[in-house]
Amino acid sequence: xxxxxxxxxxxxxxxxxxxxxxxxxxxxxxxxxxxxxxxxxxxxxxxxxxxxxxxxxxxxxxxxxxxxxxxxxxxxxxxxxxxxxxxxxxxxxxxxxxxxxxxxxxxxxxxxxxxxxxxxxxxxxxxxxxxxxxxxxxxxxxxxxxx
Length: 147
Description:
This protein is α/β, with parallel strands linked by helices. The protein contains three helices and ten strands.
């Protein structure tokens, strides 16, 4: 019984030391099953997953590239220094997080005679709600994959 309490106390002390908002998990792939890059992120909505991808920065924040539609990192404006190398090049990572979706991409239908806007210009026939959707990893943690 004494060993159990000492073990639990040690775990609590070790896990309470890092109070930052963004934690770098030393090995997320051990706590969650690594999934193949999905064609449809909605299949994983509200589920905690680990996926392998490339760190890239964009105007709307940090994102992860893989073999299909990218996924954004919720609450992260950019990857830490040294993770993004320019263009489509960045560190290869295992990222763990909960898949969420938002309809917040800047989309618009241009009107004749109006000044160009910032965002994604769409045709009149486009579904603005569907096109403004993006998937993100909430409460993300990551690990650099060593080559």
